[in-house]
Specification:
With about 130 residues, the protein is an all-alpha fold. It contains four helices and no strands. The protein is flat, with a radius of gyration of 19 Å. One of its GO terms (molecular function) is ATP binding.
């Protein structure tokens, strides 16, 4: 195989992997209520960030936290789907796996909310 063909094949594989990733995100947004909630909160925080003129460092913190919460929700969704496939009937350990995965998203969402309060409350208080 020539060098150019290999590069082209590798590029096509990379593009497909991005497509699969975006398809997964879209699927989760369409089907998961909590993902819709996280996306709506993210949009509200972005709007508030522009209105309250948060600093570059605060934007970076928000972006990292957005990624952490959304990635956690995606992983939780994937875990729940796999558990449902493997264990289609009620099982205590399957329930625990799903609860623990959901707990990990909750921890990241609480951390993001606390950071959000630290960033936004002083700016809101300054307006009052």
């Amino acid at each position: 195989m020539s060098f150019h063909k290999k590069i082209r094949r590798d590029s096509e594989k990379t593009l497909k992997s991005f497509k699969y990733g975006f398809d997964g995100i879209a699927s989760a947004v369409r089907s998961e209520r909590n993902m819709k909630i996280h996306i709506m909160i993210m949009i509200l925080v972005i709007i508030a960030g522009f209105l309250l003129k948060i600093t570059m460092g605060e934007w970076i913190a928000c972006i990292i936290l957005f990624g952490m919460v959304i990635a956690g929700e995606l992983m939780n969704t994937a875990i729940e789907l796999v558990v449902d496939i493997i264990m289609p009937y009620q099982h205590e350990k399957a329930r625990r796996v799903k609860d623990i995965a959901a707990g990990s998203v909750l921890v990241s969402a609480i951390a993001a909310a606390v950071a959000g309060f630290i960033i936004f409350v002083p700016k809101i208080m300054a307006l009052i």
